[in-house]
Amino acid sequence: MEHGEATALFDSQLPNESPGELAGGIRQAVLAGGKFDRFKGLSMALLGAILWGVSGTAAQVLFQRYHVDPAWLVSVRMSIAGVLLLIGAWVTQGPGRTLAIWKSKRDAAGLVLLGVVGLLGVQYSYFAAIGYGNAATATILQYMSPVFITAYVALRQRSIPRAVQLTAVLLSLTGAYLLVTNGDWRSFSIAPAAVVWGLISAVTAAFYTLYPRELLRRHDAAAIAGWGMLLGGSVMSFIAPPWRFSGQSSWDTWWLVGFVVLFGTLVAFYVYIASLKYISSAEASVLASGEPLSAAMIAVAFLHVQMGLTSLVGGLCIVVTVTILARSGSAEGT
Question: Model pTM?
Fold first, then answer.
């Protein structure tokens, strides 16, 4: 659920890729030690994607088996992740860079918008989609965000998308139709509320991918991510305070909460971002397709989520769409 967030918050601070490299989807990795470093980068990006997918499935167990409130999990997750990210930024970048964004009213207002509308919006809508449906379909629906980005860029630039972009959009829409109807237009194969929240998560993911680029040109990315998470968690705390747990308390419950917060957020975020030192953002975005695939595989194998062949084909169409747009660079341009 967060590969776009991670890429958006850090990619603009990497060296720019030329149009030709973006069209091919690959620029030469920043090699510090040859092939091993490249292999390490590929492995780290894939690990981050898998951890995000597994954490979505863990959240599904918390919501549907232990009756944990999605709003409470978002509040806890964002607050803890925000504090730890800010501590890391303070240690590595110093207090000056960590606090710099608050010295400008304009940048501070932009940060609040990013944290509340972008980060909080996508976190809550994603978990709500899981609560009403399942982790597999919620993750796949969120992966439609590049389609919304493509549409926004085309409208803003008043240009017709390229043939490869139009093909990807049509493929994504076909995949969404197959996923939510299982091929039968007269009925939904998943709850309508899950579809609505999944599409909202895709729209908010597109927003935080496009919106923070100006902030990132002037401020440290880790500090922006930390403040944004903390702001989102603080706002959600008014609705679902972290100290007011709702659900079935057990060792399994708290183990899963710890996994979602630590491995599904901090570790996944760190290894994915660290991978960008060795491979291109386009390559990392393609490998991030492991998130919906891992979420679907685990949900079907361990949670007995029923996904017919038509729904699986629809999900695959959306994953292929992300790969096409990532390799063409269309999801990154503004």
Answer: 0.76
